[in-house]
Design goal:
Layout: H1 4-34, H2 39-66, H3 70-88, H4 93-108
């Protein structure tokens, strides 16, 4: 069963990865027609930002679904939101807000996997 913070993280990561993936596809398509990677001189920083954004979103999915301790997962999700903001600045404010909300939901979640003695 998926928890609320996992659902929110999955939706945020998928929506946040659509534009960078489409942008990378279009870049490589146009670059294949040109034949010379001259387009990288103009769009080099955008390419790096797209790769880093996709990596952060994948990291958020891994943090939400593979880390069993919800306190650590919540802190990692908030860190992913902060990293996303550092990479994309004001374009990442919706993703930042959603990752911070998912992090707070994970922090509030009761940890059922840890057994008390």
């Amino acid at each position: 069963m998926m928890r609320n913070y996992q659902k929110l993280t999955l939706v945020t990561a998928i929506l946040g990865s659509i534009i960078p993936i489409v942008g990378l596809f279009l870049y490589f398509l146009v670059n294949s027609f040109i034949g010379i990677p001259i387009l990288a001189l103009v769009l080099g920083s955008a390419l790096i930002g797209a790769f880093i954004t996709i990596a952060i979103n994948i990291g958020a999915i891994v943090a939400a679904f593979k880390i069993k301790n919800t306190k650590i997962a919540g802190a990692a999700l908030m860190g992913c939101g902060g990293a996303l903001f550092l990479v994309l600045h004001f374009f990442a404010i919706p993703g930042l807000i959603l990752y911070v909300i998912a992090g707070f939901l994970a922090l509030r979640e009761k940890n059922l996997s840890i057994k008390k003695v």
